C-alpha cells in the first residue's frame, strides 16, 4: 500500500484536526517573527533618536562658539553681572511666624509683621549670582573671580524655634565665603516675637556678626536683636546703618 492509498483511508476528522494544528503552529511562528521584527525596529528607532539628540546637542555647542557674548571681555562681562546682581535673596522656608506672649506679656500677632517677599518665580531667579555661576563654565569662572556679585544679600528669617538652621545657613556661608574680603551690603529682616531660646535668626545674626568688619551697608528690620557678649562687633568699614522696627520694637547689643 502506497502513501496515497493510506492517506485516502484516513478519517476526515483526523485530517482536519491535524490541519488545524499545523495552521495554529504556523500562525504562532509568524506572530513570534513579527514581534521580534517589531522589537528590532523599535531598537533601531531608539538608536536613531539618540543619535539625533546627540547631533542636536553637538550643533548647539558648536553654534554657541559663534555667540557675540564670547567677544565680550571678562571685565565688561563682570560689570554687566554686577549690574544684574542688585541683591541676592535668601528666605527661610517654610515661612512660619509663631503667635505667643513675650517677656513683657505683650501679645504678638502674626499681622504685626510684614509679609516676606512674595516669590512669584523659581527661587534661583532671586539669586542672580548663583544663577549666573550655573549658566556655563565661562560665566561661572567670571562670577567666582568677582566677589562683589556675592556680597549683596537680603535675608528674611523668623524667630520660630521649629526652623532648622542648616538649609538656610549653608547657602549663607557659601555667599559669605565667595564674597571674599569684599565689603558687604546686607539687609536683614527678622520676623516674629522675641525668643530667649535658639532660633534661626540667632544663628544668622551670630554668623553675620563674625563678618561685621566687612559691613559697608547694614539695614535691619526686626522686633528684637540681641548679640551675645562674646561676639565682637567691628564697624570700621560701616558707611550706612538703617534700623527699622516691626511692632513692637526692641534692639539690644549685649
Automatic annotation (TrEMBL):
Keywords: Coiled coil
Name assigned to this protein: F-box domain-containing protein
Source organism of the structure: Gymnopus androsaceus JB14
Coiled coil, from the record: 24-51
Top-rank taxon, per record: Eukaryota
Record flagged with keyword Coiled coil: yes
Amino acid at each position: 500500500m502506497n502513501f496515497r492509498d493510506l492517506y485516502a483511508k484516513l478519517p476526515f476528522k483526523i485530517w482536519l484536526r491535524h490541519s488545524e494544528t499545523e495552521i495554529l503552529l504556523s500562525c504562532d511562528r509568524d506572530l513570534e517573527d513579527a514581534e521580534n521584527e517589531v522589537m528590532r525596529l523599535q531598537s533601531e528607532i531608539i538608536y536613531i533618536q539618540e543619535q539625533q539628540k546627540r547631533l542636536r546637542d553637538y550643533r548647539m555647542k558648536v553654534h554657541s562658539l559663534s555667540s557675540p557674548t564670547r567677544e565680550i571681555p571678562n571685565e565688561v562681562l563682570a560689570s554687566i553681572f554686577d549690574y544684574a546682581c542688585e541683591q541676592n535673596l535668601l528666605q527661610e522656608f517654610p515661612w512660619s511666624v509663631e503667635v505667643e506672649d513675650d517677656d513683657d506679656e505683650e501679645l504678638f500677632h502674626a499681622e504685626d509683621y510684614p509679609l516676606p517677599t512674595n516669590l512669584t518665580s523659581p527661587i534661583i531667579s532671586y539669586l542672580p549670582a548663583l544663577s549666573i555661576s550655573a549658566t556655563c563654565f565661562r560665566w561661572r569662572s567670571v562670577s567666582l573671580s568677582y566677589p562683589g556679585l556675592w556680597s549683596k544679600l537680603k535675608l528674611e528669617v523668623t524667630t520660630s524655634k521649629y526652623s532648622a538652621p542648616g538649609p538656610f545657613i549653608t547657602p549663607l556661608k557659601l555667599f559669605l565665603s565667595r564674597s571674599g574680603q569684599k565689603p558687604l551690603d546686607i539687609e536683614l529682616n527678622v520676623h516674629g516675637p522675641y525668643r530667649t531660646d535658639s532660633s534661626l535668626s540667632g544663628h544668622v545674626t551670630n554668623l553675620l556678626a563674625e563678618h561685621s568688619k566687612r559691613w559697608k551697608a547694614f539695614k535691619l528690620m526686626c522686633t528684637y536683636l540681641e548679640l551675645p557678649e562674646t561676639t565682637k562687633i567691628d564697624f570700621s568699614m560701616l558707611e550706612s546703618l538703617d534700623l527699622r522696627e516691626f511692632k513692637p520694637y526692641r534692639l539690644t547689643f549685649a
